[in-house]
Each structure stands twice: as structure tokens, then as C-alpha cells.
Write a structure and sequence with these properties.
Oligomer: single chain
Radius of gyration: 13 Å
Order of helices and strands: HHEEEE
Structural class: alpha+beta
Strand order of the largest sheet: 1-2-3-4
Strand content: 25-35%
CATH architecture: 2-Layer Sandwich
Shape: globular
Length: 84
């Protein structure tokens, strides 16, 4: 595993070390979602699902061929700012 895959997260939170700390839980959860996309909770919007990873919410949608990660949301933020 390399830190480069999570560079964007590191740039947004200004801590590459913390980003690398989150890399394994994110990767594990994304693998779970890839094998069972219905594992996440359904959101209010049709076709959108969410899955918690520590203090973060992975927001995604899927169809038969593709899983699309829409957002990684820090749940400690104001939910009114959530966009995806």
C-alpha cells in the first residue's frame, strides 16, 4: 500500500500521516462494498447508500456494473454543508 492513493485526502486534511492511518479502514470498507454493495444504509435520495468508517461517511451509488464513490464526509462537520 502506498500513500499516493490517499494524497488527496492528505492534502485536504493537511496530514499525510493521519490520511495513511485512515487508508486501511477505508480500503477494507471499499472492498466490502465492492463485494456486497447493499451493505450500506440507504439514504433519503433514491439509489444513494452510506457506510460509516470511523468519523467518516462514505457516500456511494451502484448499479449492476459500477460502484461510484460520491463523497467522503467527515461527520464532525455541519451536515448542512454536505454536497454530493
Amino acid at each position: 500500500m502506498t500513500g499516493n492513493r490517499y494524497l488527496t485526502i492528505g492534502l485536504r486534511n493537511k496530514s499525510n500521516r493521519y490520511s495513511l492511518h485512515l487508508a486501511d479502514p477505508f480500503e477494507h470498507t471499499l472492498q466490502l462494498i465492492s463485494t456486497n454493495p447493499k451493505i450500506g444504509r440507504t439514504a433519503q435520495e433514491s439509489g444513494i447508500r452510506t457506510k460509516m468508517v470511523r468519523d467518516y461517511l462514505l457516500i456511494y451509488k451502484f448499479n449492476e456494473d459500477t460502484i461510484t464513490l460520491l463523497s467522503i464526509w467527515d461527520t464532525r462537520q455541519d451536515p448542512k454543508k454536505l454536497e454530493y
